[in-house]
Design brief:
Layout: H1 7-13, E1 20-23, E2 27-31, E3 41-45, H2 57-78, E4 82-86, E5 102-107, H3 127-140
Antiparallel strand pairs: 1-2, 2-3, 3-5, 4-5
């Protein structure tokens, strides 16, 4: 399934050019035009699935099978100090293209311009609250 208005579907079809890194029958990987850091790559399913909430298991399996190969190729090519695998789902979480995609962002040190800020809130949750939250999530898994 494709969405004719989706920029990533247009990239997959060749209607919009891209700097392709990898492709198989299920997955397409290409350099992100923003290049947050050198080698910043997107991995997308060829099927149009909006976000992780719509991603089917087969698509996820095929997508994540490609991640180690592409990540290793980035690592071997650019020798970054590390690599972030990032995914945003829905607009409030920063998703701007509504076709599921993973960002592979090589990290070259504090000066590379990418900042992921994690605020620590462990003091807001006691053991009992954490256990209740875990049970609630677990019971919602189909």
């Amino acid at each position: 399934m494709t969405d004719e208005s989706c920029i990533f579907c247009k990239i997959i079809s060749g209607e919009i050019p891209s700097a392709k890194v990898y492709e198989n029958e299920h997955v397409y990987a290409f350099l992100d035009i923003s290049q947050v850091t050198k080698g910043h790559t997107l991995i997308i399913p060829k099927s149009h699935e909006k976000d992780v909430f719509e991603l089917n298991e087969e698509t996820a399996a095929e997508l994540f099978k490609a991640v180690p190969a592409v990540a290793t190729a980035i690592n071997d090519t650019f020798q970054p100090e590390g690599l972030n695998v990032l995914n945003n789902n829905k607009e409030p979480a920063g998703q701007s293209v509504f076709h599921y995609h993973l960002h592979l962002i090589p990290r070259y040190g504090a000066q590379d311009g990418f900042k992921a800020i994690w605020e620590e809130h462990s003091s807001d949750y006691d053991t009992e609250t954490l256990q209740k939250m875990a049970q609630d999530i677990a019971s919602a898994i189909n």
